[in-house]
């Protein structure tokens, strides 16, 4: 560590890690309590991945490439799409649902008055483990693609993949954070979430499938390109330095903007106590 | 006549709610944007020549008409139903001297009108500006199209309501709603015209309700389903499924209400 944390900050850091462990543990207990639910959701997750696969594979009954990506390469994008979807189910959806409920019935008070960063507390409180099914299914598809290609990524490709996947998750988190923050204004935001899901549906295709304005939109406005295409390029060893820099910049900018936006909208919260 | 009055009243109430949340309508409309995206993907392929008899203009026609149909047949009642069953707010609705399903239908129609006001001009403009985009606008075709859309809406609404009723027995309705949505996405023609599937799949699909929720009405208006045999078979299967779902809904509803004990007040 180049920077040594001040004792206060160090204690804070520990506190947050401990809290995170407590959150994950309590969520696990809930999931264990409702095992049938867990199983239904997990099966649905695998089913969904299958549907995604069909929706992309269908194109390959008529063509041998989508925007220059072969069938096997596109499978990696399908896998990544499923993984990110899983991450959304595990971390983002359960929390956003609670944020909306808490703003609506006024129990957000209990979050805001706790001596913990409100964004941390509101967006990482719940974990839904059943979404892991999508993640596992996604990795299985990627493994299948590698098997068909007879390709094994080397160490640099794997490192780049891990980094780009983390950035992708950070970007998705930031977008969901912004959506959650708007709950302080609009209260009802389920439609906003639906809008995200629809636009995110494009992430199952390589970004190069789209041309012109659409590609620009899905790269810079709603950075779908960085969510699936870039990590896929990383694991295939086709990443350029410029893309890495762009991804890092995009991830950092969105996260900072999202956090600032959260702080800004929290101020509009007026509670809903009777 | 009395029913009409009731619908008018419920429609007014629903439109008041809809206008209250008017910003959301725009968002909702955009959420059927997936069809535009799929169109772009298909166009990226058809650039090199027709795909299964679909030229680029045919894809534009299919997806633009499909977009309109999708907005006309959009349903989301299952979410409301799931919520009101779990939260117990269904109880007061049950006490009213009218089946709760009518209220949902009225709300569904009000929003539909608002959606179509925006979607229709856009789709028409795109179709008008695309040379070779073939849409049959004879009175006969329009009449058949309207009937097929009505059937498609009925199928979508009934299937959605049935899935929503699962909330009487499980708290996991959301998973099933998502599952139905995923099936519809692939099998009804939202991501691809059914004609793009391998023949074996097409032969199986034509017996299932899904293609009749979107693909069938679109094929009528784009002139792909025009022979009496095609139409007779299509409407036959479509309304047979409507009947099946209607019977199922009635039975399940009776069963559910008997065992339903409200949560909360």
Characterise this structure.
The complex is a heterodimer of chains A (274) and B (265). Chain A has helices at 7-33, 35-57, 71-105, 108-112, 118-123, 132-149, 155-186, 190-200, 212-221, 224-235, 241-266. Chain A is mainly α. Chain A is globular. Chain B is mostly helical and 265 residues long. Helix content of chain B is 72%, strand content 0%. Chain B has helices at 2-20, 22-30, 34-46, 56-72, 77-87, 90-95, 100-129, 139-164, 173-187, 199-205, 215-221, 228-259. The longest helix of chain B is centred in the C-terminal third of the chain and has 32 residues, at 228-259. Chain B starts with a helix and ends in a 6-residue tail after the last helix. The model of chain B has no long low-confidence stretch (mean pLDDT 85). The A-B interface holds A 34, 36-37, 40-41, 44, 47-48, 51, 54-55, 58-59, 61-63, 66-67, 186, 188, 190-192, 194-195, 197-199, 201-202, 205, 209-211, 214 and B 21, 23-24, 27-28, 30-34, 37, 40-42, 44-45, 48, 51-52, 79, 170-172, 175-176, 178-179, 182-183, 185-186, 191-192, 196-198.
Percent of residues in helices of chain B: over 70%
Q: What is the mean pLDDT of chain A?
A: 88
- Strand-pairing-aware structural class of chain B: mainly alpha
Shape of chain A: globular
Strands of chain A, total number? 0
Q: Characterize the quaternary organization of these chains.
A: heterodimer
Average of pLDDT of chain B:
85
Strand content of chain A: under 5%
Largest sheet of chain B: none
Q: Segments of chain B where pLDDT lies below 50 for 5+ residues? A: none
Listing every helix as H and every strand as E from the N terminus to the C terminus, the arrangement of chain B reads HHHHHHHHHHHH
Helix content of chain A: over 70%
How far apart, in Å, are the first and last alpha carbons of chain B? 34 Å
Shape descriptor of chain B: globular
Rg of chain B, Å, rounded: 19 Å
First and last CA, distance of chain A: 50 Å
Instruction: Give the helix tally of chain B.
Output: 12
The DSSP helix count of chain A reads: 11
N-to-C SSE series of chain A?
HHHHHHHHHHH
Biggest interchain interface, per-side counts: A-B, 35 and 36 residues
| Unreliable residue stretches of chain A | none
């Amino acid at each position: 560590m180049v920077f040594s944390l001040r004792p206060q900050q160090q204690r804070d850091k520990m506190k947050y890690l401990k809290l995170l462990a407590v959150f994950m543990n309590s969520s696990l207990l809930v999931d264990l309590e409702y095992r049938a639910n867990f199983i239904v959701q997990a099966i649905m997750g695998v089913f969904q991945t299958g549907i995604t696969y069909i929706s992309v594979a269908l194109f390959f009954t008529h063509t041998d490439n989508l925007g220059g990506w072969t069938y096997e390469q596109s499978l990696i994008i399908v896998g990544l799409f499923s993984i990110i979807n899983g991450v959304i189910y595990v971390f983002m959806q359960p929390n956003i649902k609670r944020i909306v409920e808490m703003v609506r019935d006024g129990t957000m008070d209990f979050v805001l008055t706790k001596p913990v960063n409100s964004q941390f507390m509101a967006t990482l409180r719940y974990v839904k483990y059943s979404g892991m099914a999508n993640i596992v299914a996604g990795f299985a598809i990627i493994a299948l693609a590698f098997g068909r290609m007879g390709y094994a990524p080397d160490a640099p490709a794997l490192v780049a993949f891990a980094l780009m996947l983390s950035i992708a998750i950070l970007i998705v988190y930031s977008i969901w954070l912004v959506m959650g923050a708007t709950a302080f204004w609009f209260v009802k935001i389920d439609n906003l979430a639906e809008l995200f899901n629809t636009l995110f549906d494009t992430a199952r295709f390589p970004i190069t499938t789209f041309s012109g304005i659409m590609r620009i939109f899905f790269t810079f406005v709603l950075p779908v390109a960085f969510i699936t295409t870039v990590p896929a390029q990383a694991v295939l060893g086709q990443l350029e330095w410029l893309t890495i820099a762009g991804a890092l910049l995009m991830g950092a900018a969105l996260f900072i903007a999202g956090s600032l936006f959260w702080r800004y909208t929290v101020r509009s919260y007026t509670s809903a106590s009777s | 006549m009395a029913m009409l009055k009731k619908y008018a009243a419920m429609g007014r109430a629903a439109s008041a709610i809809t206008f209250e949340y008017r910003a959301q309508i725009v968002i909702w409309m955009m959420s059927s944007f997936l069809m535009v995206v799929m169109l772009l993907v298909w166009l990226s392929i058809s650039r090199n020549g027709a795909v299964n008899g679909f030229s680029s203009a045919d894809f534009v026609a299919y997806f633009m008409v499909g977009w309109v149909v999708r907005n006309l047949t959009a349903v989301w009642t299952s979410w409301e139903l799931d919520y009101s069953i779990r939260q117990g707010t269904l109880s007061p609705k049950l006490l009213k001297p009218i089946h709760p399903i009518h209220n949902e239908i009225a709300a569904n129609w009000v929003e539909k009108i608002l959606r179509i006001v925006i979607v229709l001009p856009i789709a028409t403009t795109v179709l008008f500006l695309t040379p070779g985009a073939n849409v049959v606008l004879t009175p006969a075709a329009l009449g058949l199209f309207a009937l097929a859309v009505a059937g498609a809406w009925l199928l979508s609404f009934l299937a959605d309501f049935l899935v929503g009723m699962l909330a009487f027995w499980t708290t996991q309705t959301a998973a099933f709603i998502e599952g139905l949505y995923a099936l519809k996405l692939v099998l009804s023609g939202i991501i691809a015209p059914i004609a793009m599937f391998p023949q074996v799949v097409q032969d199986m699909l034509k017996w299932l309700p899904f293609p009749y929720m979107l693909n069938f009405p679109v094929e009528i208006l784009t002139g792909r389903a025009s022979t009496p045999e095609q139409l007779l078979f299509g409407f036959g299967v479509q309304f047979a499924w409507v009947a099946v779902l209607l019977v199922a809904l009635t039975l399940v509803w009776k069963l559910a209400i008997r065992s339903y004990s409200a949560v909360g007040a």
